[in-house]
Specification:
The complex is a heterodimer of chains A (about 220) and B (about 290).
Chain A: E1 8-13, H1 17-28, E2 33-39, H2 42-51, E3 56-59, H3 68-78, E4 83-88, H4 93-102, E5 106-109, H5 114-125, E6 130-131, H6 133-144, H7 146-149, H8 156-166, H9 171-178, H10 182-196, H11 201-210
Parallel strand pairs in A: 1-2, 1-3, 3-4, 4-5, 5-6
Helix pairs in contact in A: 2-3, 8-10, 8-11, 9-10
Chain B: H1 2-119, H2 127-150, H3 153-158, H4 160-175, E1 178-184, H5 192-213, E2 217-224, E3 228-235, H6 246-251, H7 254-263, E4 267-272, E5 278-285
Parallel strand pairs in B: 1-2
Antiparallel strand pairs in B: 2-3, 3-5, 4-5
Classes of the chains: A alpha/beta (about 220), B alpha+beta (about 290).
């Protein structure tokens, strides 16, 4: 026999009552779970922590006042022991990775079925992570495409320009060589200087040589 | 003799008189001429004055018209700004409404069906019931797409740079165009309207590359300067003749980009050559 204190204490936060009730009634059928309280917004969630001993917090992202992302951040800072599972319809990669970065333990899309929800709660209680299949796919795609998106300081065009500058080309000659306008060369040069934080041509060439961009 | 004298006297008097008359006539002529001269000068002066007045009046009217035109332009700009602001706010509201209200109802409906499945095991093999659940999932996915196209959640939740990163990733996976995205020095978010407008500018520039450039690679770069943001979108596509008329540029989608750039009081420069790709450079000033 399980006593009530051994049940996993849950907090369900969603601003839509119809959905909140749906999640609650789904969870309540599981004997090892206890929905301790529900909230309709981020501030309410933070208040409830004082009154209840919560193990796992199920958070929606879109909530009035403090949204799910901000709420997750604050929970991480104030109550690092509480596990957070996002339960949302957002499947944008940047939002997912932002939340993973904040330190949520699970990320479920609202089209998940009950088995997934139960598995997620049980897994995060054991200190592991749980992501919906779709979410996992999105995270993995992000890793493989990383090289295209990676923030590298210089673009190919900029690199070409640096190399021509190192060969003592003037802006006019560079424009003719690369079939672009003088003005575009100027823009690229300004951007290169801004990005490499070099103030003049000599500084830029020195930077390029240090980084092995030119021989 | 005397008579002759008198006659000749008479004659000479007559002649003197004649001379006098002629002289007087000439004098009169001269007087008239002098008067005429004076009159001509006066007329000329008058005409000159009239002309200058006309000229001044004309200039005044032109200035008035210019001022009027400027005022009209300013009002039109303001109107355009107000409209696009309202439009974007409306988009945001609609996107959130669709996503939130309708999305939640769909999710709740799905939860109910899952619950039903839990309590009635025979439903787990009921194909109609299961395809109903499948349709609900489809509806949710469709709804997310629609809401994303109206206003991407990443943009309103996380800001311009994550939203653009997301956009470039989507283009890579859906359109097969290799897009490199570089953002330099964007720690702080700009105001919402600026972010949304820049997002739409880049979105349209990328759409242009996808639709018209026949390019295999593109670079999207945003560099932040203390007082402005530089946006550069380059592609290695077929390029075009920049001497094309403004109307034709509108046709390839640059018209609405220009309107948005104007809205942010920015500058746009298009550098392209047939066969040599296209570089669009946009500078957006930042309010200090």
């Amino acid at each position: 026999m399980l006593t009530t204190t051994k049940k996993i204490q849950l907090l369900v936060a969603d601003d839509h009552a119809i959905l909140r009730d749906g999640i609650v009634s789904l969870l309540q059928t599981e004997p090892e779970f206890q929905v301790a309280c529900t909230a309709a917004g981020g501030y309410e969630v933070l208040e409830l922590f004082g009154k209840h001993n919560i193990d796992v917090c199920l958070l929606d992202i879109n909530m009035p006042g403090l949204d799910g992302i901000e709420t997750a951040k604050l929970i991480r800072q104030r109550k690092p022991d509480i596990k957070i599972i996002m339960l949302t319809t957002y499947n944008d990669r940047e939002i997912i990775s932002e939340l993973v970065h904040i330190g949520v333990s699970g990320y479920l899309l609202k089209n998940s079925d009950k088995a997934e929800l139960v598995e997620a709660i049980n897994k995060v209680m054991k200190g592991r992570h749980y992501f919906s299949e779709e979410v996992e796919k999105i995270i993995l795609e992000g890793l493989t495409e990383k090289k295209n998106i990676e923030v590298i300081p210089l673009t190919e065009r900029e690199l070409e320009i640096v190399q021509l500058l190192a060969k003592e080309y003037t802006n006019e000659k560079i424009a003719a060589e690369l079939h672009i306008s003088y003005r575009t060369v100027e823009t690229h040069r300004k951007n290169i200087m801004q990005k490499t934080k070099t103030g003049n041509l000599a500084g830029l060439i020195k930077y390029a040589m240090n980084k092995g961009l030119v021989k | 003799m005397l008579l002759k004298d008198s006659i000749s006297n008479e004659q000479s008097r007559y002649r003197t008189q004649e001379i006098n008359t002629v002289y007087q006539l000439a004098e009169k002529d001269r007087q008239i001429a002098r008067q005429n001269n004076l009159r001509n000068i006066l007329i000329a002066l008058f005409l000159f004055l009239l002309l200058s007045l006309g000229f001044l009046y004309n200039r005044y009217r032109l200035q008035q018209r210019n001022r009027y035109q400027q005022e009209l332009n300013r009002q039109q700009n303001e109107m355009f700004n107000a409209i696009s602001l309202a439009q974007e706010q409306e988009r945001k509201r609609i996107a959130q409404d669709i996503h939130d209200s309708l999305g939640s109802v769909l999710s709740a409906a799905k939860l109910k069906m899952i619950e039903a499945k839990e309590s009635k095991p025979e439903l787990t093999t009921d194909e109609k019931f299961l395809s109903g659940i499948g349709l609900l999932d489809e509806a949710s996915a469709e709804l997310r797409n629609i809401s994303h196209n109206i206003m991407p959640a990443t943009l309103s939740k996380l800001g311009l740079i994550p939203a653009l990163k997301n956009l470039c990733e989507k283009v890579i996976s859906h359109k097969g165009l290799q897009v490199r995205f570089i953002a330099h020095d964007f720690e702080n978010r700009a105001d919402e309207q600026t972010e949304i407008t820049i997002y739409r500018i880049v979105l349209e520039l990328i759409n242009n590359v996808v639709k018209h450039a026949a390019a295999s690679r593109a670079t999207v770069q945003l560099v932040k300067y203390p007082d402005y943001i530089n946006i550069t979108v380059e592609d290695n596509g077929r390029g075009f003749d920049t001497a094309k008329t403004a109307d034709e540029k509108k046709g390839i989608g640059l018209g609405s980009v220009a309107a948005r750039v104007d809205y942010l009081k920015g500058k746009m420069d298009i550098d392209s050559m047939p066969g040599k790709g296209t570089t669009v450079v946009v500078d957006i000033p930042l309010a200090s």
